[in-house]
Specification:
With 417 residues, the protein is α/β, with parallel strands linked by helices. The protein has 12 helices and 17 strands. The chain folds into 2 domains: 103 residues, Urease, subunit C, domain 1; 300 residues, TIM Barrel. The strands form 4 sheets. Strands 1, 2, 3, 4, 5, 15, 16 and 17 form an 8-stranded mixed sheet that branches. The chain has a 4-stranded parallel sheet with strand order 9-12-13-14, covered by helices on one side. The protein has a 3-stranded parallel sheet with strand order 6-7-8. Helix 2 links the parallel strand 7 and strand 8.
């Protein structure tokens, strides 16, 4: 794959070419020249795009593709195409499939399905057998098959001893344990944030306390056991402060936040629109402000689209019975670039790989091309026309966003809209 990018502004704080507008020559998938002007003497494919900006390829630490078992929601093939057109060169795929990904064979199957794509697919194995929270799954075997972490997607581990054993066992081979931050007995039947909004709508509330109690428990366990812990999709102000204090104590903990939890407060629920039914639930503006501060000061390590396609039969129903989840890959950059500066948005979108054991390198000569191409200045209303996913349960539908994606160059392939 040989291609010449013309007049591309590089956004990569770790690169010597940061903030420079240059031509970038890629030969056989490797960056061979970066200069103010490069003559196309070999008649390679040239890419000229309006206000072209280039960064390291983006990474999403939590996507769900359905396959195997829920292909009506999304297939791996279409999911990876969606990720590419959304600017992501690498994604970590959750184990919430049918059957659940909890064995060497399951992980091998997913990796084989993801081969020969521009986007690199990294499977996350289930933490417990069938994600039932009863017995540890074959963690070491899945690690050897290629699993980058272990997580029962959006299912809290109720048994603290099981979590303790998981942290201790995985520490022997450097495995990353993920724990969904929710105390189920406190959550009860809550479906939205416990607040005056839930009361006024007559919906059962899920209090901040449910998230924070689970985080406190897991941090105590981590301090006792050692190991590596990742807390996905935190949503409350107190959660940020708890993790900040844990990092000051040098605990090996990381966390993420879903992009929609940075954008929407629970006030949008007044219309009972089920596209806003997500877990953790949308919280208050005070929580949003603190989450953004947590991103800025490094307490929160990464953001995720938490892309979770749900078929219409399970989403377009009464609010109490609708499934949780939203697609988010297609709107991820536009949403994040709306609430943060472009530099910070790109910095966050290119973080996280190392935590999952995935190598990343700055844009430089001799480096394999793994690039995202985008325009940070465009503004538009996100509609179904921008959706590439099979499912259409988009929380950002009809929302004004800033910044659009052209595509990616990765694994010796060019994918552009």
């Amino acid at each position: 794959m040989n291609v010449l990018l013309k007049s591309a502004t590089i956004i990569d704080s770790k690169s010597d070419f940061h903030n420079q507008t240059v031509d970038i020559l890629i030969e056989k998938g490797v960056i061979s020249k970066i200069s103010n002007r490069i003559n196309n003497s070999n008649d390679y494919r040239e890419i000229h795009l309006d206000n072209l900006h280039v960064s390291q390829g983006w990474f999403d630490s939590s996507v769900s593709f359905g396959e195997p078992g829920f292909e009506e929601r999304e297939t791996i093939s279409n999911g990876l195409k969606t990720a590419a057109l959304s600017g992501f060169t690498a994604v970590a795929m959750n184990a919430n499939t049918n059957p659940v990904l909890d064995s060497y064979a399951d992980i091998s199957f997913v990796i084989s399905k993801g081969q020969n794509n521009a986007v690199s697919l990294y499977p996350i194995g289930a933490l417990t057998n069938g994600s039932k929270g009863e017995n540890l799954a074959e963690l070491f075997d899945m690690k050897n098959a290629g699993a980058v972490a272990f997580y029962d997607y959006q299912k809290p581990i109720k048994d603290p001893n099981l979590m303790k054993i998981a942290l201790q066992y995985a520490d022997n081979f450097g495995g990353l344990i993920c724990s969904f931050p929710q105390e189920s007995k406190i959550t009860g039947l809550g479906v939205v944030n416990e607040n005056y909004t839930s009361t006024s709508l007559g919906l059962k509330g899920n209090p901040n306390l449910a998230e924070e109690l689970q985080i406190v428990r897991d941090l105590f366990l981590l301090e006792y056991t050692g190991g590596k812990l990742h807390i996905p999709t935190i949503s409350t102000a107190k959660s940020v402060s708890l993790i900040r204090e844990a990092k000051k104590k040098k605990l090996d903990v990381s966390c993420s936040v879903a992009i929609h939890n940075l954008f929407f407060s629970d006030s949008v629920l007044e219309g009972f629109d089920t596209r806003y039914k997500v877990t953790p639930p949308l919280r208050t503006q005070e929580d949003i402000d603190t989450l953004i501060e947590g991103l800025k000061d490094g307490t929160i390590d990464m953001v995720t689209s938490d892309h979770n396609p749900i078929d219409i039969e399970h989403k377009k129903v009464e609010f109490d019975y609708a499934e949780y989840g939203t697609i988010g890959l297609e709107s991820a950059f536009g949403a994040l670039n709306t609430v943060l500066s472009t530099k910070k948005a790109i910095d966050i979108l290119t973080k996280g790989k190392n935590r999952f054991g995935i190598a990343s390198k700055p844009i430089a000569l001799g480096v394999k091309a793994e690039l995202t191409l985008f325009n940070p200045k465009t503004t538009y209303t996100f509609t179904k026309a921008q959706i590439h996913s099979t499912s259409k349960n988009a929380i950002f539908n009809n929302i004004e966003l800033k910044g659009s994606v052209f595509g990616i160059i990765a694994n010796k392939k060019v994918v552009l809209k």
